[in-house]
């Protein structure tokens, strides 16, 4: 129909405006992809050189004999996904198994040297699961974080973030206090050497805890 041509022309012109803008900017409008929005439970490993994953499990029947003072024992498995910035299908490399009781280290088994290369920027991930982490498991993970903080510092690695699952952020903050790491905003005096552990939750809340020997 002749009367429909102006209307069709307007639609065509409107459709060509975004494409023309993309061409002028040096990009193809056909190659543009929508921004990737991940659900909060999914941890994006791509921004980091390496990602170390911690998985805690209370061993309820381990050393559970009469008179034993070693319960509860928590095993923390530490694995590393290497070169996640370029290898989007990186496989987990077993690094260490650690055993804790009330946050105190009582055992260690090392499978390989620290996989992160000197100077890599890394993230630490407390592996999410359906069953909530209990107090003993959070204490063990926090103690393991402190040990990894030291190992990574000696390796000149920058810890970009430490992702904790679910609603456990405050519980991790409290557990780290027992390891002499307190929220930075609570420090009342100058810190000569800043040793941070940057925590973040799945919903985006963040707390930076720093080593304070007097706490």
How would you describe the overall organization of this protein?
The chain has 215 residues and is an alpha/beta fold. Helices cover 23% and strands 29% of the residues. The chain has three helices and nine strands. It has helices spanning 5-24, 135-154, 169-177; strands spanning 50-59, 73-82, 92-101, 104-110, 121-126, 158-163, 181-183, 196-200, 206-211. A nine-stranded mixed beta sheet has the order 4-3-2-1-5-6-8-9-7, with helices on one face. Strand 5, helix 2 (135-154) and strand 6 form a beta-alpha-beta unit. Helix 2 (135-154) packs across helix 3 (169-177). The protein is globular.
Largest sheet: 9 strands, mixed
Strand order of the largest sheet: 4-3-2-1-5-6-8-9-7
Q: What form results from the Cα inertia axes?
A: globular
Helical residue percent band:
10-25%
What tags apply to this protein structure?
215 residues; alpha/beta; 9-stranded mixed beta sheet; 9 strands
Topology of this protein?
Elements: H1 5-24, E1 50-59, E2 73-82, E3 92-101, E4 104-110, E5 121-126, H2 135-154, E6 158-163, H3 169-177, E7 181-183, E8 196-200, E9 206-211
Parallel strand pairs: 1-5, 5-6, 6-8
Antiparallel strand pairs: 1-2, 2-3, 3-4, 7-9, 8-9
Helix pairs in contact: 2-3
Describe this structure in a few short sentences:
By secondary structure, the chain is an alpha/beta fold. It is 23% helix and 29% strand.
């Amino acid at each position: 129909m002749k009367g429909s041509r102006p209307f069709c022309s307007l639609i065509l012109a409107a459709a060509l405006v975004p494409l023309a803008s993309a061409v002028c900017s040096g990009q193809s409008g056909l190659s543009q992809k929508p921004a990737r929005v991940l659900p909060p439970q999914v941890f994006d490993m791509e921004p980091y050189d390496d990602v170390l994953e911690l998985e805690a499990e209370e061993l309820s029947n381990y050393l559970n004999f009469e008179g034993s003072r070693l319960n509860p024992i928590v095993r923390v498995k530490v694995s590393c996904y290497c070169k996640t910035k370029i290898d989007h299908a990186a496989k987990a490399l077993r690094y260490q198994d650690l055993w804790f009781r009330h946050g105190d280290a009582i055992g260690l088994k090392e499978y390989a040297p620290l996989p992160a290369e000197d100077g890599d920027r890394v993230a630490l991930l407390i592996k999410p699961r359906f069953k909530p982490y209990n107090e003993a498991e959070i204490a063990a993970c926090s103690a393991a974080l402190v040990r990894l903080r030291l190992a990574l510092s000696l390796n000149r690695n920058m810890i970009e973030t430490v992702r904790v699952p679910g609603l456990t952020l405050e519980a991790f903050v409290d557990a780290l206090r027992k390891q002499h790491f307190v929220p930075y905003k609570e420090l009342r005096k100058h810190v000569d050497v800043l040793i941070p552990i940057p925590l973040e939750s799945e919903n985006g809340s963040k707390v930076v805890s720093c080593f304070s020997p007097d706490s």
